[in-house]
Fold these 2 entries.
Entry 1:
Amino acid sequence: MTIPFIDLAAQRDRLDGGIERAVERVIRSGAFIDGPEVDLLEEELSRRSGGGHVVACSSGTDALVMSLLALGVGPGDAVFVPSFTFVGTAEAVVLIGATPVFVDVRSDTFNLSVESFVEVARTGVPSGLRPVGVIAVDLFGQPAEYSRLRSEAAEMGVWVMADAAQSFGASADDRPVGSLAEVTTTSFYPAKPLGCYGDGGAIVVSDAELASRLRSLRSHGAGGHRYEHTRIGLNGRLDTIQAAVLLEKLKIFDEELVARRQVASRYDEALRDVVTVPTVLNGLSSTWAQYTIRVDRRDDVAAALGERGIPTAIHYPVPIHRQPAYSSFATESHLGVSEVVSSTVLSLPMHPYLTSVVQDRIIDGVCSAVGG
Ligand SMILES: Cc1ncc(COP(=O)(O)O)c(C=O)c1O
C-alpha cells in the first residue's frame, strides 16, 4: 500500500464534518466575497502572529506581489532573494519590474546565508540598480535568521521581508512568525501546514498605513468608495469559503504542529546516523512543512523508496538562477551551496497523522535504500 505524502483526508475526518458545515454556511449566506469569515480570520491570524495588521489575500504569490507594490518597488530596484527556494519568491520581484539578485543559502538549514547576503550586497549588485530590500524565505518551516539579517539590512538601508509561505505558526526566540520582519507573507496552498481548499494567502505588517495600502491594492486600488481607484491594484482577495475552511482548521492547528514536531523528532533520532537530517537552529521552532534530508545517489534512494510504496518529493531540484526564465538575472555571485543542496535534497512523507507504524516503515525504507 502506498503511503500518502500528506494526509488531508485524515485531517478532514478528524474535523468530523466541521469544514463541510462551515462551507455550507457561507453558501447559504451568499457572502462569497468579503464575508464576515474573512474579518474573523484576519483577527485570528493577527492574534497568532504578534498582533500585526493582517491582510488576507488570494495566494502566497499575490501576497509577495502586493507587498512589493505597497513598498513602492519597481523598475531599477534590486531585491535580494535566495536562489534555493520555490520560484514564487523571485517571480514576484520580476513581475513588478524589479530585478532579483540571488543570494546563497546555508547548507544546514537551507535558509538564506547572512554572510552571502552581505557579500552579494557588496560585490554582486549589477551596476545601475538600487538595492531596496531583501526577501528571506523560511524554507521547510524554519524561520530565517531575522535578527542578524535585520541588523545587516538596517546598515545598508534596505527593508527585510519574510516569505513565510511554509512557516506560519513557527517562532524565533518565542516571537511568532509575522513579527520577525517588517513585512511577512504566507500561503494557504492546500499542502501547507495551514492550508485551505484552494489558493489563499496573507500579509502581516506592523505599519497601519502599509496595511491600508495593501487593503486598497487587493481590491483594484480602491479609494474611499468601491468605484474610486486611487492606485493601480489587482483582484487579490481571499474567498470567504477559503476563510471559513481556515477558521475550522485553526481549531486544531496547534495540536497539529505538536504532532508534526513529534514526527520530526522521531525521524531525527532514527535517521541522524544514516543520512544528513535537517538542522533547526537554537531558539527557532519549525512548522515542519517538509522533512527534508540530504543523501548521495538521491535518485536511486527515491526510486528504492518508491518501490516500497514510500513517496518522496524534491524541493527543489533546480536553483532559481539556473531556471531558463531566470538565467538572465544570474550574476557572478557564488551560489555553490544552492547548487549542491538542490542535487541532494529529498523530502520524506510529513504530516500530523503519520502513525509510528507507518513512520517505522519509512525509516526502514530509508535505511535499506541508503545501505543498499
Ligand atoms: C517559499 C514559497 N514562496 C511562495 C509560495 C507561493 O505561494 P502560493 O502557491 O500560495 O502562491 C510558496 C508556495 O507555494 C512557497 O513555498
Note: The chain has a mean pLDDT of 97.
Entry 2:
Amino acid sequence: MTRMKEERKAENITWHDGTITIEDRARRNGHYPAVLWFTGLSGSGKSTLARAVEEALFARGCQVYVLDGDNVRHGLNSNLGFSDADRAENIRRIGEVAKLFADAGMIVLTAFISPCRADRDRARRVIGDAFLEIHAACDLAVCEERDPKGLYARARRGEIAEFTGISAPYEAPEKPELSVNTGHRSLDECVEEITGLLASRNIFLDR
Ligand SMILES: Nc1ncnc2c1ncn2[C@@H]1O[C@H](COP(=O)(O)OP(=O)(O)O)[C@@H](O)[C@H]1O
Ligand SMILES: [Mg+2]
C-alpha cells in the first residue's frame, strides 16, 4: 500500500490491513470497485452523466455512489475556497475519499471540474488500478450556451474570478480511459459508453 508521505504530519502511525479481501467484497457486491473520475468544463455534463450512470448501475444492483462538487464543498471541504492551494486540496481530499469508497468495494463516481492534470494524476496514483478517467468532452461554446447555473454569464461580466475556461485554464486529459462527447451525443448514448467501459474492464462479476 503506497501512502503519500509528503502530506503526513503525524508520526507513530501504522497502516492496518483488514482480513476481508477485495475478492470477498466483489463476490458479495457482484462487481469489483471502480472510481469513475469525471473531468470537464462547467456545464459539460459531469453531474448529469454521473447521476444517470449511478441510476443505471443501481438498477442492476451495484453498490454505487456519486461525489459531486458543490455537495462536498458544503461539508467535508467547507473550509476550502478557490485559491490554487485550496483547489488542489479539494481534489486531494476527494481522491482520498474516493479511494476509501473503492476500498469498501464500491463504484464511486466523482463529478468535479478538476482542471489540473497534476491533481488528477495524483488521484490516479493514490487510487491505483480502480481509477478510470472520463473526459466529459464538450466545446466551451456549447457549455456556455447551456450555462445551466448561469455561471458563464456571471464570469463574462467579471463577477467570478478565475472561472475555468474563461479566466482560468482547463487542462484536458491526454490519455483518459474514455472521452465521451457530451456536446453531440445524447445522455443515453454517453451512459452506454460508460457502462461499456466498465464491462470491458471486467468490473461486473457473473452472478
Ligand atoms: N450527453 C449529455 N451528457 C450530459 N449532459 C448533457 C448531455 N446532453 C445535454 N446535456 C445537458 O448539459 C447540461 C450539463 O450540466 P451539468 O451536468 O450540471 O454539468 P457539469 O456538472 O459538468 O457542470 C445539463 O443541462 C444536461 O441536461
Ligand atoms: Mg456539476
Note: Helices lie at 22-29, 46-59, 69-74, 84-103, 117-127, 140-146, 151-156, 187-200.
